[in-house]
Specification:
Blueprint lengths: L5 H12 L15 H10 L10 H17 L3 H11 L3 E7 L6 E6 L5 H19 L5 E3 L8 E3 L12 H21 L1
Antiparallel strand pairs: 1-2, 3-4
Helix pairs in contact: 1-5, 3-4, 3-5, 4-5
The chain binds zinc ion.
Zinc ion binds next to loops.
């Protein structure tokens, strides 16, 4: 995994925290091995999910959410550094035109280790490049999601833009219609 690919990594961290039951009115979107395997496939993670992983991933998800919810720089750096413990080693990838720092997983790494390393690198990369103010709660009043904003202008407002942004637009539209009929 490329150390400078924080946009990809932070996107996975955001997707992971937004599978939590608190974001879906109690329904966990990663309840079991099958859903975790599908999540790993969707993000092309190189390891298979094993029976102990769902619970371990739930703990990791809570840790990452806690970091996003308390975005002080020193706390983010300390917390994200701890998430990088499954690192196997650092090397240079020369397979594309451009040489990149890459980090590998230690041998025998699990899906939880993989997600932990990705979240750690994503958070550290965003703090380094964009700053601690990029860790935010969803702006939709009814949503309890959170996200890491890796957009260039830094004005992202919703955890799931297609979903939460649309909900807010629909609510605003209804409010305008209601006002027009008064
Ligand atoms: Zn949201």
């Amino acid at each position: 995994m490329a150390l400078d690919d924080y946009v990809w990594a932070a996107g996975i961290a955001t997707d992971l925290v937004n599978t939590a039951p608190e974001v879906w009115h109690g329904e966990d979107k990663l309840p079991d091995l099958a859903s975790l395997a599908a999540f790993a496939d969707l993000h092309s993670l190189p390891v298979r999910a094993r029976p102990g992983d769902p619970r371990a991933v739930h703990r990791l998800r809570a840790t990452v959410r806690d970091l996003i919810d308390h975005p002080e720089q020193a706390r983010l750096i300390a917390g994200a550094s701890a998430l990088t413990s499954p690192t196997g080693g650092i090397t240079l990838d020369t397979s594309s035109d451009r040489r990149r720092w890459t980090v590998s997983l230690r041998p025998g790494a699990t899906v939880t280790d993989t997600l932990s390393l990705i979240c750690g690198i994503g958070i550290l990369g965003v703090v380094q490049t964009l700053g601690a103010e990029r860790f935010r709660a969803c702006g939709a009043p009814t949503c309890r999601g959170a996200f890491i904003d890796t957009t260039r202008p830094g004005r992202r407002r919703y955890c799931m833009p297609g979903l939460c942004g649309n909900r807010v637009n629909v609510a605003n539209h209804r409010a305008r219609q209601a006002a027009a009929h008064e």
